[in-house]
Amino acid sequence: MATSTVPPAPPVSESLLSASRALALGLLWGGCMLFILGWWLGIKHEDLSRLVVLLIWLLAAGSFGCGVWHYLTLARPAVTPEIKHAALAKHRTVLGLFLAVGGLILVGLALYLGSSFGLAAFGEVVGMCLVGLIAVASGCNLIKGERAGPEIHPFFELLRRSHGPYGLAMLIAGIILGATAVVLILVQKLGQDWFPEMAGLLFFGLLGIVGGIWLILSQSDELTTARMRIFVLVVGGVAGLILSLGALARAFVWRDEVFGGMRAWQGDRGWHLWLCAYVELIGLGLMFTSLLLARTDIRSSAVLRRVLYGYNAVLTGLLLLAMLAVLNIVLFALFPFSFEWSKSRGAHTLSTSTKNFLNNLREPTTIFVLLPRDFITTELKNFLENCQNQSTKLEVKYLSPHKDFEEYENLAKRFPESLSGRVGRAGAVDRGILIVYGAIPADLAKKVPHAFVPSDRLAERQQLATKEDGKVVVVFKGESEIMNELSSLAQDRKKRKVYVLQGNGEPDVNEKEPSRRDLRSNLQSLGCGFLVERLKKDQYDIQGLSFAPELPKDKTANLVYAKETGPEKRKEVPDDAEAVLIVGPGVPLGASILEALERYMDRGGSLVVYFDTIVDAKNNTLKTTGLEDFVRKYGVLVGKDFAMRVPVRGAPADPRLVFATVPRDTTNDLAKDFLGGEPLAMDNVRIIRPDPSSQKYKVEVLMQLDPREPTLQQLYWEETAVQALTNPETYVRDIATQGVLKTRISSEPIPVAVAVSEKLLDPGSGKERLKPRIVVFGDAEFISNLDVISAMRQGSDLAFDWTASILGWLSAKKTALTGPRTKESTSYTINPLQVDVERMRYLPGWLMMLSVIGLGGGIWVVRRR
């Protein structure tokens, strides 16, 4: 009996599977790139309609979804190969339609973007057009389906039959290109800036002449289709190489824009980068397409095989590099800052005060760096780049004293007060940073605020106190110097007048020596002259203010006496006072002083009050000065209680020393500048509470002793017994032994500083606004000479940071530096007399090069075997 056997179904062709995998991967990759494109457009062009970004993201989602759908179809097992083949063919039709329609939409969006933003969107427009056209072409091919074509492209046969006319056309085109280059160079006298284009024209002309002559002189019977393929390969590869090298040369000429960073890429000449990038990609693509013609000969020719595989590896590496570059650019657009991860933080990361000032910069500001490139340190460059990225109103321009003579002369003519204009053998004599606050007018006669920071103020070289000679540490001071000058320009070079109350036991503003005090004595002997000098360097005019009678021969420096005014001959706070500091008075203030302060506050003045603990002569109670009742009018409660800390192992033993931090849920602008920063150490601090019944003023806790602070893990309690101040160790031991200490420990934060703002009604909008009026601290000793100097030796400058920030916050003008200032960063320099610097510079490079050559040689030997 005969039996019939059903032949097995043929498997799905490998070419179809390979093409389907490539299609799925391309769709997934295209979806990711479109998503990044939409993100980038939203960041770069803030005025762009959100609808455009939404459409691009919809295309991205569709591309990604189609890629996943097609890939799942490939991975899903089918009943028969015919069914899988039909499913893949149907998918290709649907995906082709999606690509064609999506490509047209992308081209339309590109045209809209180009008409809206012009050259500013050159890169995006060209890229979207190229991607859109490729998608349309790919979609049309997919819709048409698989077609069986000849193994040899008809173009090669046409070129073989008509080699004479094609050769003549190439010869004429080459002569025209070469002649054009010669005319432009010799007649028009184009300079070095046009070198890439002129060299490209010459090489293209030479290629056309050589290729045309070869085609003309070749005999028809000698020309085969294979030779035509090699001819096209050589001509296309060389043309692509010329384009690639020309794009690299043009990128070098436009290096300031191409490698200028985010600010240059988003500027008016940002299209320079994209033009070079696209021409480079076109050149590489032309080379790759030409090399693909050698696929049929790679098995018989080892040279072609090595060239094709080698170029494929190089192109893959370049594409990977481009992908990483795009990713870095997008991330930099979101987080455009350079960071320093060292323990001391350095000056690479902008300080809070610098960020606050730049965010509120009112006028366009230009910083000219008049330094040779070799003298621009990493700290300075990172600082200036971060400043540019922090504020759109600040621009940094680099001018080399060796090369940019014309630009330097223009600046010297415009700013003769800052630049001498002298030029020596080494270039311009003036080296440093020129800061121009405001738009630079075209008229040289019009003045604009400016300042010059010499290069020797940007860094300071200090010899290390070590046994080894030659070691030098360089301290970077660029951020503090530049920002102080910029802040001064923003305030019209006017120093703000601040008075410090004197004559009532307060620290002496002229005393600069550190000293200690007994709790029964006032703070006058402590002095605060060290902090006063720091504030004077920070654009403040600090003077003492006394309400005592003025002696005829009294010539005390930095001290003014309140003048009697009006018919009632009342002494008043000077009208030019922007703020008055009251630092721990040791005796009750007279009624005339308190009344003058109240009238000053009624005129819109500002106060900074520092309370402190001063014990009476019998060690029974704390002294009061009348300020307690005065600040109560403004919603601040100050009693006779003070804060103590539970001594724990690993912390200072003195329970009077506490560590204050900013509340984590604060909404106060001043407090937010110090949020998460280092704690402020205070001694014998009084408790300062907001009055919940205050209606006219908003009182916010500025600093507190928080037992829940995870970084400190300290416990505190409220105390009223003076014995805890005079003999703290014995007192704490006694109440701990009695079991009383555990019951007194506070589970809630204890406030030790508050900020007071007056609630006002804005007449324009009718909304409530807050005007800063008073800041009250429970400790005054932390701004005394001894505490300030001790803290600075430990790397902390919080006393100055807080005081300067408080004064800036009270001014409400946003032209002062508020928040923690920058810390000086240090870097070590090598003595060239003791160390071979050239060897350190070049030896690693030579070793790496030899390692690569050795590795490559070893691989070549193994492959040869």
Please summarize the sheet with the most strands: 8 strands, mixed
The radius of gyration is 38 Å
User: What is the terminal-to-terminal distance?
Assistant: 59 Å
| Structural class computed from helices and strand pairing | alpha/beta
Annotation, overall tally of beta strands: 24
Shape: elongated
Strand content: 15-25%
Helicity range: 40-55%
Query: Largest beta sheet: what is the strand line-up?
Result: 11-10-9-14-15-23-22-20
Topology:
Elements: H1 14-44, H2 50-75, H3 81-117, H4 122-144, H5 154-161, H6 163-186, H7 195-217, H8 225-253, H9 255-258, H10 262-265, H11 271-292, H12 302-334, H13 352-359, E1 365-370, H14 378-390, E2 394-399, H15 405-414, E3 423-424, E4 427-428, E5 432-437, E6 450-454, E7 459-463, E8 472-476, H16 478-490, E9 496-502, H17 529-536, E10 540-546, E11 559-561, E12 563-565, E13 570-572, E14 579-583, H18 591-602, E15 607-610, H19 627-632, E16 636-645, E17 657-660, H20 669-673, E18 680-683, E19 686-690, E20 697-705, E21 716-719, H21 723-726, H22 728-737, H23 741-744, E22 750-761, E23 768-777, H24 785-793, H25 798-811, E24 825-829, H26 837-864
Parallel strand pairs: 1-2, 9-10, 9-14, 10-11, 14-15, 15-23
Antiparallel strand pairs: 1-5, 3-4, 5-6, 7-8, 8-24, 12-13, 16-19, 16-21, 17-18, 20-22, 22-23
Helix pairs in contact: 1-2, 1-12, 2-3, 3-4, 4-11, 5-8, 6-7, 7-8, 8-11, 11-12
